[in-house]
Structure formats: C-alpha cells, structure tokens
Amino acid sequence: MTQLEGTVVDGVRIQAPFQPADTPDPFGRLWTPHRMVYIGGQDKPADDSTDQCPFCAAPGRADTDTLIVHRGHTAYVLMNLYPYNTGHLLICPYRHISDWTQATATERTEIGTLTARAMEVVRAVSHPHGFNLGMNQGQVAGAGIAAHLHQHVVPRWTGDANFMPIIGKTKPVPQLLGDQRDQLAAAWDSTPTALDTDRPDPER
Ligand SMILES: [Zn+2]
Questions:
Q1: CA atoms within 13 A of residue 119's CA, in its CB half-sphere
Q2: Cα(147) to centroid of ligand 1, in Å?
Q3: Around ion ligand 1, which residues have CB less than 5 A away?
Q4: Which domains does the chain have, with CATH numbers?
Q5: End-to-end CA distance of the chain
Q6: 126 Cβ neighbours under 8 A, 6+ residues apart
Q7: pLDDT truncated to tens, each residue of the chain (204 aa)?
Q8: Cβ neighbours of residue 167 closer than 8 Å, sequence gap 6 or more
Q9: Centroid of ligand 1 to alpha carbon of 55 (angstroms)
Q10: Of these residues, 70, 88, 148, 150, which one is catalytic?
Q11: For the chain, how many helices (H) and strands (E)?
Q12: What's the rounded Cα separation, in Å, for the pair 115 and 134?
C-alpha cells in the first residue's frame, strides 16, 4: 500500500501504513519523519538518573517540541508521547521524585489541581465520556518511567476499548500530537473552571 513502509529513515523503521508525503491523505497533513527521530530519542531512559530523565529534560525545552500543555509552579502538564487514548495527558512535578509520598504538600495540591484542570480542558476540547486518573508506583505496577512521578489523565469514550488493541500497535503521528498540544494549550487559558477559590472548604 505504501512505498516507504518497512524502510529505515535515520535509524527509525517506518511501521505504520501511511501515504507518501506527496500524496494527499484524508487528513491533508504531511508526515514528518524528523519528528519520529526526535521521539525515538525520548525512549526509555538507560537508568534512573535525572540526566537520563525525559520529564526532567522537557521543561528546559520549547513547549511545542516537548508537547508541554501548561506550566505550573511546582508541576507541569504534557502530552503522553505513547498515548493510551487521544488527549492522554501527564502531570509531572518538576522535581525528580519517584514516589507520591515524596511529594511536598504544595506539590500534592498542585498536581491535584492540575489534574482537575486537565479534565476540564480535555472535556471542553474533545468531549470524552469518562476518564482514568492514576499513578503507577514502581516498574512492577506498570510505570514506564518509574524514576519520575507522573499522574495519568486518560480520556475515555464509550466503546473505545474495542479498538484500543488495534490502535495500540500504531505509533502516534507527531503532527497529530502537535495539533492536539496546540489545541489543549489554547483551551487551557480559555476554558471556564469550576474551581471557586473563594469557596471555603467544607467543615470536617
Ligand atoms: Zn526526572
């Protein structure tokens, strides 16, 4: 079906079916292999150190390159490069800590606030029917990058589990992730919030 499938470009094997760049596809987008090379470099770190850690490196780079959607004071929000679903976001503290119990009170509060905000923004942009929220603590629990804490915000749609095994084998196309980042970053500033900072916490 494609001319390039199975070939290797800059060390990256092209796997997903796609149209060559000079052939208009149904989405009218160009395929950008140079971004795949960049993402190849974002693969699993060789060890647990901060200089191997993509979540430590991301804030030092441009938002559009690292797919950062929003930067808070102690934590930031970025797109997952290997999403379980469209719009899959991660909330990371800036500090290189691995365990939720190591987070300060301020980090715990901000990660919680950013999680709720991420839900509001993704809801406004792509209208999911539900969400999975959570942190995998330790490699055995499924953490891809166990050394640096990250909270998953995964939007869910009715029936999405039926095609997940199929798209699970498909690498995300960076152009689409970039488009999503732009959309979510813009919505982050414009979406109304349910958070009323003037409302007192209920008595315990
Ligand atoms: Zn880190």
A1: 17
A2: 7
A3: 53, 55-56, 96, 148
A4: 63-190 (3.30.428.10)
A5: 63
A6: 86, 87, 155
A7: 445 566 676 666 665 555 455 555 444 444 444 444 444 444 567 777 888 899 999 999 999 999 999 999 999 999 998 877 888 999 999 999 999 999 999 999 999 999 999 999 999 999 999 999 999 998 888 888 899 999 999 999 887 765 545 555 554 555 578 899 999 999 999 999 988 776 666 765
A8: none
A9: 5
A10: 150
A11: 6, 7
A12: 10
CA 19 to ligand 1 center in whole angstroms: 37
Determine the distance separating the centroid of ligand 1 and the alpha carbon of 133, expressed in angstroms.
20
Q: How far apart are CA 182 and CA 196, in angstroms?
A: 26
**Residue 127 among the catalytic residues:** no
Identify the residue whose tokens are 């915000």.
Answer: 153
Provide the 3-class DSSP secondary structure of residue 133. Answer: strand
Structure tokens at 86: 């469209």
